Amino acid sequence: MTTERQYRQRRAARDRIAAAADRARTTASRGQAEHAAGRAPVMPADRFVFIGLLDELALAAGLGQLPAGVLRLALEASDAVMREPQP
After folding, report:
1. What's the pTM?
2. pLDDT, position 40
3. Which of 6, 9, 54, 65 has the CB geometry, 3.0–4.6 Å to 21, for a possible disulfide?
4. 3: three-class secondary structure by DSSP
5. Minimal CA–CA distance to 22: which of 66, 55, 45?
6. What is the DSSP-derived secondary structure letter of residue 65?
7. What percent of the chain shows pLDDT beyond 70?
8. Please, which pLDDT band fits residue 86 given cuts at 50, 70 and 90?
9. Residues 62 and 6: beta-carbon distance below 8 Å
10. Rounded to 5 degrees, what are φ and ψ at 38?
């Protein structure tokens, strides 16, 4: 049976990963707009694949479906995204 503490941990992990996905999505969208205006290079398509991966990881983390090692790596990747400078 899942305890309230486990639910809180799942929600916290989901929220951290989702926040990183939102930040990366905002940055990528801004990069696309800058490219359309001719002020920046093309935003790599891989960035959008990574954002989709973060979205899926956030969903799985919220449901408690990620193994501990995968969750740790997802949180590390999310923290790295959050540390990226904003343009």
Report:
1. 0.89
2. 82
3. 54
4. coil
5. 55
6. -
7. 98
8. confident
9. no
10. 80, 20
